[in-house]
Input
Amino acid sequence: MLVCVLNSALYYNTNSSQAKTYYNNGEYAKAYSKLNGMKLNSNDKTLYEQASTIMYVRRQYDSYNNYMSLNMKTEALNALIKGIDRYNTYRSSAQELGIDDKFKAEYQNVIDALQNTFKISEAQGISLADMSNSDFTNYYLKIKEYGKAVQ
Output
């Protein structure tokens, strides 16, 4: 019984330590993975929430890169617009968690890609994000045209 308790404590401490290292190195997905599914203490729960909140936007940026590598430009643009939507949805959570700067940095990656690849401004991106929530058919037709325009 004592061996199980010690093994469990060692496993928890190792994962917790690794998660903190990953988080501090900007590897939020790895930090999230290390803590996911574990019963967490309050400090690790905060770290888990911080990593998962940042990942809401980061995953969309990663999706954009994956779609671009597959020459799927409409889907890549859609991922960036989802990144804007996720940023607006979770921004207050990021502020409450004290990670607003890291969250904004991930958002800036999305905005930079939007501007550099599709020549779409942040304001236009926000407008498209709003459209995606209210009129998806017209939204999709619009981003499809943007996707075709990219060489």
About this structure: Residues 2-7 have pLDDT under 50 and may be disordered. Residues 42-69 form the longest helix (28 residues). The radius of gyration is 19 Å. Residues 74 and 144 are 5 Å apart (CA to CA).
